[in-house]
Amino acid sequence: MFLWEPVFQPALAGPILYVPGAGGSVWQVLTVLDHPVTLQRINPFDTIDPNTYVSSGITVDRFGFAYWNVLQLDPTTFENRGFLVKAAPWGQTWKVDYETLIPGAPAELDSCFYNFFFATPRPARPWPPSADALPPQFICGRQRPGVNITPAIGRDGTIFTASTADFAFNYAYIVALKPDLSLKWATSMRGLVNDGCGVHRPGFPEGDIRCSTTFSAVGVDPTPTCRPR
Known about the structure:
mainly beta
């Protein structure tokens, strides 16, 4: 994750406003008075780390518990670690590391397919260079929340979010958690969606996206030659 722009998205729950703060923390503010009053700073970590950020909007459930995602950036290796945070109205917090959540997800040092742009030497366009060509593989990186992925809460308290491999964005998962932040289920989005040539585009006069070469498979992005996410 080299370039990213998180949204700044507070949440209003009755008279209480939750505002993203530094270091992955959130400010709890009382708004009913003429001059809003800060009630507390909710910090799920021991310190205020300048390389830790609230990376999502904040969601508040019907019981007043707040949820948000946090990314910790390593400025040396550019690796990232992600957490889902749950906070009670009185300030108690719980958090879970995304790396521990997804059974069957590629591990941090496992190999994931990238795309032909990273091949050495880089093949001439158009891609793919042959019918059976595969892009190079590099380390996947640990699972983390996608940037700007705001948790969603079901009526039964189920928490829904999404994760991705840190360095291989086309390895993504939809995740459901129980209210105690333990895993309910997780499912991979990889190999499910057609996004390449031959896919119908409603409203376009030409109808379908043309395949760039005779080696292009219908519905598969020719850049990685694998179905996305």
